[in-house]
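Standup notes
- DV: blocked on the single-chain target, sequence here:
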Amino acid sequence: MVKLTKTTLFKASKPAAETVMDKTTRVVREMLDEETEQREIRTARLRTARLEREAVTPKETAKKAPKGTRKKPPAKAV
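- DV (later): unblocked, structure below
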C-alpha cells in the first residue's frame, strides 16, 4: 500500500494560465483602483481647504436687494 503524505494525498493543481481577457481585466481594474484612490485623496484635500476657507471668511448675512425689474424694449413696428 502507498504511504499517505501531503504530496501523495493532495496533488497540487497547476494554476490556469491567465488569458488575454483576464490580463486586460486585471490591468484595467488596477488602473481604475488607482484613479479612484487619487480622486478620493484630491476630494479630501479640496474639502479640507474649503472648510478652512469657510471658517476664516465671515458669512455675509445681508443679501443684496434686487435692482428692480428690467424694462422691455418697445416692440418693433412691422
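- Follow-up: Helices lie at 6-9, 20-56.
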